[in-house]
Amino acid sequence: MNSRDDHSQMVLSIAxxxxxxxxxxxxxxxxxxxxxxxxxxxxxxxxxxxxxAQVEKLRVIKRLMDQGHRPGRIVAQPMEALRYLSQxxxxxxxxxKTGSDQERADLxxxxxxxxxxxxxxxxRELFKTLSQxxxxxxxxNVVAPLTTLVGDAWARGDLAVHEEHLYTECVSSLMxxxxxxxxxxxxxxxxxxxxxxxxxxxxxxxLLMVESLLILQGCRCISLGTQTPVRDIAQxxxxxxxxxxxxSFSVNMNTNQVVDGLAELNLLLPSSIELWVxxxxxxxxxxxxxxxxxxxxxxxxxxxxxxxRRLELSHHG
Length: 317
Fold this sequence. Notes:
By secondary structure, this protein is α/β, with parallel strands linked by helices.
């Protein structure tokens, strides 16, 4: 029996649902009155309790809201409609034009192992692929499309949250080991790139992918990890004499948080420090952002580095 089925009869308190989904208690109560969902039961003390099926639906709703959908248009929708909408968003943000990556048998094997709770098999296969392909091909040909597949499977309900987290931890630990094994650039290596995410962005896998490819390009990288306040990003960039600040945004990042945060960061950074951004956040495709270089996919990282070096050479020529 799959572990997702083992917990299907569980119920959560309203406080647990808030922690699990990121949707506030007051919002849950308002939706209950306004849209007729969720529909909690009551425990012996009269407190609201939520079955796992409703919690799963709330997770999908939160994900769609983070992508810009309004609650009034989605909360009352059936789960099938929400999953269809999630799949539509996934297809829009996929780098693959034909969807061929979605059907790669070698990637589907990893999903099967995740669903079977075979964490040792996942680690073993990922390590074998990394050893055979090398870090660059591992990141671009395996991790990037597989991460999209895992996210889409979660949106469809084919993977549980803990299975998605297991995948992220397996890949992240392997990539950190591989990054440490790369000969360290000198302190004079350029550009010097500070990597992090905004406080609302907890996903760090995209950041690791970018860091690995930058180091392979001979850049000096300073990673702050995830969720750094905007003012601290600017202070760290200045303190470390960074040439570039690189930020990663997942599809879950709210458009206003992206745009407002980048505008504030631009005001705090000196003009000598460039701002590079990448990821699947819709804001990166929908708006022209002043003084911001949008990296369209991992393949554009090498071009961005070479562009920076040409400009630097021309300034000193």
